[in-house]
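so my prof wants the structure for this chain in the tokens format not the other one, which i didnt know existed until like an hour ago. anyway here's the sequence
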Amino acid sequence: MRFAGLSRRCALIAAAAFMLAPGAAVADDWPKDKPIKAIVPFAAGSSTDIIARLVLDQVSKQIGQAIVVENRGGASGTIGSAAVAKADPDGYTILVHSSSHTVTPSTYTTLSYDTEKDLAPVLPIVTVPNVVLVNSGRGYNTLKDMIDAAKAKPGSFNFASAGAGSATHLTAERLKLSAKIEAAHVAFKGSSDALTEILADRLDFYCSPVNAAIGFIKDGKMTALAVSSAKRSSALPDVPTTVEAGFPDSGYEFWIGAFVPRQTPDAIRKRLHAELLKAIDEPGVAKKLADLGADPLKISPAEFEAMVKREIAANAVVVKAAGIKAN
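here's what i got, hopefully its the right format
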């Protein structure tokens, strides 16, 4: 009987200790009557920004708290990422980034934060194929047409990206390596600026996230030659993948995901993960994502963490092979 009494006492003490733990207390209160800041490290109108606003608006409705999206573009997303990495880990500052998050460790030698240690993955909300775009006035009907034109005039071609080391940059570099063409890189702060250059026909091509470009494609102002994903985009079912177009090892998966400062309590991280999953399943949001060619990627925070680590290693190989200079 004495031992039973001790066991009950120990259990009560353990329970009390758990309730008093800082993480548990913060998680129980989250979200308070306080707006949540979501930093998108690219310009307004970029693919990451479009997806972030669509999904987070639904999350805001679910949790009954405002989520304010703030665009902090520049330096391939590292400016916005640094701001979140250094923010208070209380669940009121989150990052919505693209797969370029796993490229910058190889292209920046002096980051003010550690990509793996300072930012905790929550959910890779969606995958969005990158589409190889040209101005419709070029008259190219296939990706091979563009590649042949580049080979006919070595050194004359150029391409846009949403920043050095961004996913749009890596997509083009993989295509260049596979097709064995020369093309000069011209970096911008985001997809909006890059698309403007293609629309004005001042640059030869841009590997744009399909959701940012779909309107121009449907209007006939730009031609979609291929998508970089492993399978065709649901938004562009008639457009082949770069591999189908005859260029092996040219694929590149583009995703848009959420992160929080590393020391954010696990309970808050799991709650945010659950709310994001619920948001992308909401019928209205799901339809809009489908219309944008964005496919939900429903994996756990731990699986996302492992994915990020794999991509950091894989992208380091691509960066070296492409001869991309570290900043």
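also thought this was worth mentioning. Residues 10-25 have pLDDT under 50 and may be disordered.
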